[in-house]
Amino acid sequence: MAFRDVLNIEVAAGNGGDGSMSFHRAKYMEKGGPDGGHGGRGGSIVLRAIEGVESLERLVGRRKFKAPNGAYGEGRLRQGADGEDIFIDVPVGTTAFDEDTGKVIADLVRVGQEKVIARGGFGGRGNSTFTSSTRQAPRFAELGTPGQKRRVRLELRLIADVGLVGYPNAGKSSLLAALSRANPAIADYPFTTLSPILGVVDRVDERGAALDERFTLADIPGIIEGASEGKGLGLEFLRHISRTRLLVYVLDVTRDPVEELRQLQAELRAYDPTLLDQVALIALNKVELVEADLAQMVEDELAEFGLPVLRVSARAGMGLPELREAIFQMLPDRELWAQNNALEIEADTVREEPLSVVFREDPPLKGPGIVGTGAPERVWEVHGGGFEERIVRFSRYLEDAAEYLGNLFKRQGLYNALKKAGAREGDTVEIGTFRFEYFDEDSDTE
């Protein structure tokens, strides 16, 4: 199966079911009371992190996900069934971004972790809810709200404790194989590693017995100059480095390790400057191929970077116990690291736009059949405050719900805001596509 670490999908949660407008009917009971039940909640779209999946490839072929709507409410106070939630199983380490805002909406770093990325609509309330001392038989109900729709970009960032970073042929795959139980393809040509490979490294005692400590090691595919600009394979996999707690720069002592490290850090800085703040060390590889004096000279030159340098040979097994122990000693605490590097997740709340009232003067109507032009129409546009959302939920029953909405709007300060803005009796009030006439009257509230 091919490795895929970026995938764009579209998700649509289910709409909430409409509330029922119903009255009780029974033998010998000509006029029963309102008994409309509530609509069901729409199904949500949920990301779920699971084990055994190492790529987003399994989702290819299905780019759109739609959850069921909630069922309508019914008479006799029967509530509509909720729509079933749809779960999208993804690898641990998957981050979800809202394509339109660019904000992080989910970051799954533990097996079993779940996050709603598109919330189902709320069910509407049945007419039984709207009874009062003055409204014994409400002939209206509430409609369900639409489910959330989103275009989402999924990015897989491998969860590994340590990342091996280096240019092609630096010996990263050989080092991974020598330190861990992984068996990567190893050959003497660039880009042998076409996808990140994970291995597990156990801590051992002086006798070689495994202790109850381990870390995961990731072989990040070889970076080339210009990787942060999309050249080679680097850009596709640089994102995986951001998940590691410690970086190991793997340098080939037979080349120009000082210049290579300088270029590697330049690529990391160009992609994400914070990567250079991570704990790191240098594994100077292939030391079996040079004299000890040359290896020492290179090590002295690398001192300018301020990082520990360990001479190793993945092929000959030289320096591997010391490298393994140095990594264990330097690894930051997992919980503390996670707290300091947690991504900022977009709050899963609906931010209600504040109420504002805008005056607009429409020109008088003109055209064939219109007698006289009259005066311009005074119109007040209402924005925010949740009023448009509320009135939409009664659009099917606006005439019957007018009294209820009028009282509701008065309690929530709409009429007071219009009056302060200078609205006059007979002016038109516009809420979205709905229009009604303003009247200045201190009517009784419920």
Describe the structure.
With about 450 residues, the chain is of the alpha/beta class. The protein has 3 domains: about 5-155, GTP1/OBG domain (Spo0b-associated Gtp-binding Protein, Chain: A); about 160-340, Rossmann fold (3-Layer(aba) Sandwich), CATH 3.40.50.300; about 355-435, GMP Synthetase, Chain A, domain 3 (2-Layer Sandwich). Helix content is about 20%, strand content about 25%. The protein is built from 9 helices and 18 strands. The protein has helices at about 170-180, 235-240, 255-270, 290-300, 320-330, 335-340, 385-390, 400-410, 415-420; strands at about 5-10, 45-50, 65, 85-90, 95-100, 105-110, 115-120, 150-155, 160-165, 195-205, 210-220, 245-250, 280-285, 310, 355-360, 375-385, 430, 435. It has a 6-stranded mixed sheet with strand order 10-11-9-12-13-14, with helices on both faces. A 5-stranded mixed sheet has the order 3-1-8-5-6, with no helix packed on it. It has a 4-stranded mixed sheet with strand order 15-16-17-18. A hairpin with a 5-residue loop joins β10 and β11 (about 210-220). The longest helix is centred in the middle third of the chain and has 15 residues, at about 255-270. Keywords: Cytoplasm, GTP-binding, Hydrolase, Magnesium, Metal-binding, Nucleotide-binding. Its EC number is 3.6.5.-. Its cofactor is Mg(2+). Monomer. InterPro entries: G_OBG (IPR031167), GTP-bd (IPR006073), GTP-bd_Obg/CgtA (IPR014100), GTP-bd_prot_GTP1/OBG_C_sf (IPR036346), GTP1-OBG_CS (IPR006074), GTP1_OBG_dom (IPR006169), GTP1_OBG_dom_sf (IPR036726), OBG_GTPase (IPR045086).
